[in-house]
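4.2 Preliminary Data

To establish feasibility before requesting continued support, the project team ran the inverse folding procedure on a target of 503 residues. The structure was first converted into the token representation described in Section 3, and no sequence information of any kind was made available to the design step. The complete token record follows.
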């Protein structure tokens, strides 16, 4: 971000009643990280860096577009998912200086290195990783054609024809969606804040807004992520329906997803966080969580996600020293996803009965169809429990089903044998080997890779390290289990005269 652009943004932010300690905090460009916040002076712990009025956040609650569209907002399905917020952002941008957020939208990025914008050849480099099935390009374009364009065409007074190609194109839709994915926060309504519809319908004390304690931390967001929002004094109320169903309590309310000016200027890196955003009744407050030396970058947190998520959301990867049992550099937060159907296919080759009844029972009781391996290279308890369920003798399976209690995650040679086969088969999802990936990232070779391919290799290498590490440990346990079984067999042959084995 050029210096003058940063200065203009800060000026706009202050004019909208945001506060920023300009003597201690600056917005600058960091090589390799893009724009970010820097400490201009030493900053003590628990120091307020800046505050954002809740009405300066940009969401379906604070934009006036939902109200202007009235009932047609819901009729077009814009209250569900991100389509509504994307349309709000495109509309606010189309208004230019008339929009209160013009000074903010002007500085947001228009170019992204995320897989959403990759060509098919680069996407193929991600084969086998957790990224490919989560890009969501087809779903986004379906929403654009089925929801957004019909809404736009229905209101030429709000969306003039001469602005559609410039501000409401599919390209702009993807760009706005990527801005939300990489920069948004989850900002819930403050207790007592409600829409006009609720004002008429809600009984006292039955507000659907979440009860947020003063200065409660909120998680910084993933594809729409950071925290609780309100519409304090001066916030424009919008008719956005809140999720009130008890069954939907844990579901994200799309109206909570918000763009938060200034807060999204902070970068993040694995376990580098030195500032956090706190949520109060009228403002969101960014506070230092440890002393920050002059010249140091001010880091927010993304929650330390794996490189697969970092690449998908933000277009970068983290490379820091790994912890045992792994070595080298990578992301200690990396994960590998193993689908339950892979476990089923392996188990099915080892038994003579149909597994469908057990699988259906598992999905009903555990609701787990993906198992996650982490950098500790241990088998997940859920995977162990599922494998045990699939190979239980008939009488034990019937008892388990009757009790509605998941099998204990106990490792034995049969479960370990299934796990070894599952891990080996999972490795076959990648078209290249771990050794080939390591060579591509060697100092004399990595500079020859494009940025996209380099990121793809880092992601798939991180996942393969976990699989190889977990496979190595599982094979060792299987060998030990087999050896123990043989020893027990020899003792039984001796009439039980051998030494008693300690458990």
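Position-by-position output of the design step:
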């Amino acid at each position: 971000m050029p210096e003058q652009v940063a200065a203009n943004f800060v000026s706009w932010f202050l004019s909208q009643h945001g506060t920023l300690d300009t003597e201690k905090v600056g917005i600058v460009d960091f090589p390799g990280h893009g724009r970010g916040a820097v400490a201009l002076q030493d900053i003590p712990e628990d120091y307020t860096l800046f505050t954002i009025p809740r009405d300066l956040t940009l969401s379906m609650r604070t934009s006036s577009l939902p109200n202007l569209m009235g009932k047609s907002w819901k009729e077009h399905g814009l209250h569900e998912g991100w389509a509504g917020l994307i349309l709000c952002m495109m509309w606010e941008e189309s208004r230019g200086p008339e929009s209160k957020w013009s000074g903010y939208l002007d500085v947001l990025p228009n170019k992204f290195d995320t897989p959403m914008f990759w060509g098919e050849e680069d996407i193929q480099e991600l084969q086998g990783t957790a990224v490919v099935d989560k890009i969501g390009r087809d779903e986004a374009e379906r929403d654009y054609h089925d929801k957004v364009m019909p809404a736009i065409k229905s209101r030429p007074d709000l969306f003039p024809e001469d602005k559609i190609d410039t501000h409401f194109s599919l390209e702009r839709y993807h760009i706005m969606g990527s801005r939300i994915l990489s920069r948004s926060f989850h900002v819930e309504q403050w207790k007592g804040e409600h829409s006009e519809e609720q004002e008429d319908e809600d009984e006292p004390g039955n507000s659907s807004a979440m009860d947020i304690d003063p200065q409660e931390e909120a998680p910084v967001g993933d594809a729409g992520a950071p925290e609780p929002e309100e519409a304090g004094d001066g916030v424009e109320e919008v008719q956005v329906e809140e999720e009130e169903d008890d069954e939907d309590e844990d579901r994200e309310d799309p109206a909570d997803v918000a763009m938060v000016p200034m807060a999204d200027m902070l970068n993040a890196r694995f376990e580098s966080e030195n500032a956090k955003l706190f949520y109060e009744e009228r403002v969101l407050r960014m506070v230092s969580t440890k002393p920050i030396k002059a010249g140091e970058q001010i880091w927010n947190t993304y929650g330390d996600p794996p490189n697969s998520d970092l690449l998908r959301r933000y277009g970068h990867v983290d490379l820091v020293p790994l912890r045992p049992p792994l070595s080298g550099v990578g992301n200690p937060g990396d994960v590998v996803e193993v689908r339950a159907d892979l476990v089923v296919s392996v188990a099915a080759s080892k038994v003579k009965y149909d597994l469908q009844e057990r699988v259906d029972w598992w999905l009903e009781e555990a609701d787990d169809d993906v198992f996650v391996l982490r950098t500790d290279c241990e088998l997940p308890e859920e995977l162990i429990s599922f494998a045990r369920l699939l190979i239980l003798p008939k009488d034990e399976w019937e008892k388990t089903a009757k009790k509605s209690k998941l099998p204990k995650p106990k490792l034995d040679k049969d479960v370990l044998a299934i796990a070894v086969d599952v891990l080996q088969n999972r490795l076959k999802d990648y078209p290249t080997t771990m050794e080939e990936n390591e060579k591509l990232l060697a100092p004399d070779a990595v500079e020859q890779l494009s940025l996209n391919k380099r990121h793809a290799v880092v992601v798939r290498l991180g996942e393969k390290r976990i699989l190889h590490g977990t496979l190595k440990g599982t094979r060792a346990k299987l060998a030990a289990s087999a050896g123990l079984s043989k020893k027990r067999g020899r003792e039984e042959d001796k009439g039980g005269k051998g030494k008693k084995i300690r458990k």
